[in-house]
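Re: the multi-chain job from yesterday

Posting the exact lines I submitted so nobody has to dig through the queue logs.
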Amino acid sequence: MALFQAHEPAELELVQSLKRRDMLLSAGQALIQEGQVDAPLYTLHRGWAFRFKTLSDGRRQILNFLLAGDFIGVQQKMGDAAAHGVETLTEAVFCVFQRDSLWEIHRRSPTMGFNVTWLTAHEESLVDDTLLSVGRRSAEERIAMLLILLFKRAAALQEDAGAKGVPFPLTQQHVADALGLSLVHTNKTLRKLEKRGLHQIIEGRLFMRDVKALGRLADLYGDGRPPVRPLV
Amino acid sequence: MALFQAHEPAELELVQSLKRRDMLLSAGQALIQEGQVDAPLYTLHRGWAFRFKTLSDGRRQILNFLLAGDFIGVQQKMGDAAAHGVETLTEAVFCVFQRDSLWEIHRRSPTMGFNVTWLTAHEESLVDDTLLSVGRRSAEERIAMLLILLFKRAAALQEDAGAKGVPFPLTQQHVADALGLSLVHTNKTLRKLEKRGLHQIIEGRLFMRDVKALGRLADLYGDGRPPVRPLV
DNA sequence: CGAAATGTTGACTATATTCAAGGCAAGTGG
DNA sequence: CCACTTGCCTTGAATATAGTCAACATTTCG
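And the result, structure tokens for all chains:
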């Protein structure tokens, strides 16, 4: 797949040797509980998931969405409690690594170690983007931004996203929780943009009807296309 | 200093060999411009700074605050434009590395490479925390959270923070931009908490007057004490 | 000393939240 | 097969939190 770098056989072997097993979860299942100790490392092979945090009264913030190729669990140190939960949005397959694989990767392959750093930094930059949205964009702008970013990420994983759209497995509650909005306001804003002909969500698929207008709304720099990335 | 891990002589040497020079900036100076290409890597040795992003109409979001020991610039790939700016809050000393040091660190010391990954992941978790605040906490709660977190971080770098307070070089505009609030609302909320006796800011120093009440307000789990960390 | 940056406060407004009610589609059990 | 529940989407009305505007005080700094 064009999104991912080609890797040396030795690197692939290394990763294979650290891999424990595959894990299949159905939609809406928890992969990591908030506060869980010593959660393993994962990569997401297929499907969608998200990382989140909650306050004690139940308010939830989605930190980012996870798509194929995302690496999960670098944040917590060994022996630490997970600072965030991870839950699936669709049926999803994860590749499970034991906790100390992070160290093994660094020890046995500087290249792969570097890749892990890069992946981690890249994920941070996604959270940075969301923080800018949630802190400084209006509801309309936030939604425009989210649609563009998710569309681009999902489109990088498939062929003809323009015509067939991309999967959009989020409920409006997920959108609200990702953008720091209430469910009701999210619904109204989503409807407004759809009525203006900017996008459509039909049967769980997202279609971009006016990317330019959405981009203007979101004040998006650059093409927003995800960079080519390493795969662990 | 108790906050930082002890390192092997070989590791210290490696870092020294990659170091280009020291750099002194006065307060309010830009270290990295948003969009700047091929910015070097830095560590912050002394002083305070912050990372931020702006929208084209000037709205600004502060992503996080940087204190002594923080590593700067891992996010951008070689040849990439910086996705965020960095600016000093106080006079500050930075240690400058050339751009490819990141790779050299990984190549020449798996341990230090691992540390860089850890540091990057840790910084992400700070942004995660802020995103939770900005997305789901009220203005009062956000401010309580920010005060606690900055206090703990600053206190870890000095002796008797309880009595003498910690430096607090932020203007109210910085607080507003970090929390996604307007300047006026930030001012009013800050005054409200101060009148309730939760904290005081006097001559650029922050004093915690009722940490428990602040913690309750912020819905803070754990002790919020920053973990022991590697130094690069 | 004067200018510029920062902090403070009140009045007004707007964006977004909460509350409430209802619709639709899918799944479940009798 | 049909009533019933459940989850998700939709909409209007009332409310609240936070934003904007404006004016002035205070501090900092050249």
